[in-house]
Each structure stands twice: as structure tokens, then as C-alpha cells.
From TrEMBL:
Every YbhG-like alpha-helical hairpin domain range: 2-89
Composition skew (Basic and acidic residues), residue ranges: 35-49
Designated name of the protein: YbhG-like alpha-helical hairpin domain-containing protein
Pfam families, alphabetized: HH_YBHG
Organism of derivation: Vibrio parahaemolyticus
Ranges for region Disordered: 35-64
Length: 90
């Protein structure tokens, strides 16, 4: 949750920075490339927020049934392997 909050703050700051740069470009005080860099930073911050929110949702939703089934299958395979190895040692 802290990661989501941090990402939200970064997005807000990046959006403000982009808006400032856009205004400065409009007034011809900075180059278009500076505005483009601010836009890229904003888009990156937005992607980071989306990623953080998705990860948080996964963590709070708990394990998916298919993940549990996959883990059970892996456990059964490991138990079978142990039993086979024990038979070889006997």
C-alpha cells in the first residue's frame, strides 16, 4: 500500500511538471524536447502506479484457485519423488 501511495504522489508531481513544461513551451521559453521528457516521465509514473495497484490487488485478493492447484500438484510430485528415492535406498 505504501508503494501505491508513493506511486500516486510521483504521478501527481509528474503531471504538474508536465503541465508547467507545456505552458513554458507554449510561451516559447523552453524546447519541445523538454516537454517531451516531462511527458515521458508522466507516462512512466502512470505505468508505475498501474503496476503498483495491480500488485496490491493481487496481494490483497489472496491466492487464486489455479495457483493453489498448481502448488498442490508440485507438492504431490515432490512427495512422489521422495517416495521413489526412499525405495531406491531400501
Amino acid at each position: 500500500q505504501a508503494r501505491v501511495a508513493r506511486a500516486e504522489g510521483q504521478l501527481v508531481e509528474a503531471q504538474k511538471n508536465y503541465q508547467r513544461k507545456a505552458e513554458l513551451v507554449r510561451k516559447k521559453l523552453i524546447s519541445q524536447s523538454e516537454k517531451d521528457s516531462a511527458l515521458a516521465a508522466r507516462d512512466s509514473a502512470r505505468a508505475e502506479l498501474d503496476s503498483s495497484q495491480e500488485e496490491f490487488s493481487k496481494l490483497t485478493a489472496g491466492s487464486r484457485p489455479e495457483d493453489i492447484e498448481q502448488a498442490k500438484a508440485a507438492l504431490m510430485a515432490a512427495k512422489s519423488d521422495v517416495a521413489l528415492q526412499e525405495q531406491k535406498l531400501a
